[in-house]
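In the laboratory, one determines a bound structure by crystallizing the protein with its ligand and collecting diffraction data. In a computational setting the workflow is compressed into a single prediction: the sequence and the ligand go in, and a structural description comes out. We illustrate the idea with LLP.
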Amino acid sequence: MHDFQYRGNELFCEEVPVRGIAEIVGTPLYLYSLNTLENHFRAFQNAFSGIDHLICFSVKANSNISILRIFIRMEGGVDVVSGGELFRSMKAGASPNKIVYSGVGKREDEIEYALELPILMFNIESTQELVLIDRIAGRMKTKAPIALRVNPDVDPKTHPYISTGLKKNKFGINIQKSLDDYRLAHTLPNVKVIGVSCHIGSQLTEVGPFVEAMQRIRELVLGLRAEGMPVQYIDIGGGLGITYHQEEPPHPRDYARALMEELKEIDCTLILEPGRVIVGNAGILVTRVLYTKEGEEKNFIVVDGAMNDLIRPSLYGSYQRIQPVRRSDRPEWTADVVGPICESSDFLARDRKLSKAEQGDLLAVMSAGAYGFSMSSNYNSRPRVAEVLVAKDKFFVIRQREDYDDLIRGEVIPDFLKE
Ligand code: LLP
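The predicted complex, in structure-token form:
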């Protein structure tokens, strides 16, 4: 359930008409509902209340510091994958001891930054990274708390670009081989083995693959404990899917029940790194129709939002529901919804049946709260759009629309070119 509903024919976000916001803030814009965000986070927390746990929101899904702040205020932690995400999380007021740091390519300066805070745990993805972290921690006269991110070789049955737990993926350390790395870690003077982590993929719509991964991790944890490594944290990553179109993902309650079942006899703290399931359906992209074109083979609705604002349809061919901000009784029309960018892959929807759009109409691209703004770019020198948070009958601009000066910030013309 989310808070983007029609009242009469007008789409509202909580108690505010979307049209009113678009008129003041301009389009395109991302719009989030505080109530939906809080409800989703709470549902996740409640689902795991039967077990010692920490929910580390995956910053990459939506990294606006106000959004992060919402979950931090609810006692959440964060999952980061870069120094930049670490910086954002600290600006949002995250407790360092609730931060986990994943990612295959951590740089030395990023590792130092995390060790200075210090964070709860590094999820290490290679032997070389393990050795480097030990060296840096030694230099800083500290001990780095670590988990190895293991790759359980489970098929998540999702889009190949967002599946991460297979042998052929670049992520993690093969679960069998990880035992050698754990033994190595145990001998290193400046790291402390405290966990096992994994993340098998994103937008999963079944619990089976999670359960399979958890079973393999459980065995590993028992093995490590038997060798004298007191593993306390099991980090199962993120990945629970949402409904974009007709998917029927499990409710967090059922997901939690299935995972907790596997952990019954293991005393541990479970870490979760949900992203999409918390923010995906809590945000929309509002865009305005610039032109409509009737082609011989296809019709087009040209809108002011584009692939630089929301890249998921272009990159993954993914489906985003599109709804009019004001419903009408105009006849249905099948069209591609496309943006102004000079690429044929610049579309938000293809062959979509919608009530016939007219110039100036507002459209809502639904389920855009996750991997929407956070994957946006300035391609075609398009300023990145505004982000707005609605709380009941009020709205707040939580990120201003960029202007043309923002586009060239940091660019320099060398003297010799000025002549
Ligand atoms: N933890 C780790 C280590 C991850 O790599 C990810 C996502 C998550 C947690 C959060 O996963 P979630 O709960 O959001 O599924 N851009 C793609 C999704 C890429 C996901 C990458 N990793 C998309 O728009 O579908």
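The longest strand covers residues 283-294. Keep in mind that any predicted model is a hypothesis to be tested, not a measurement.
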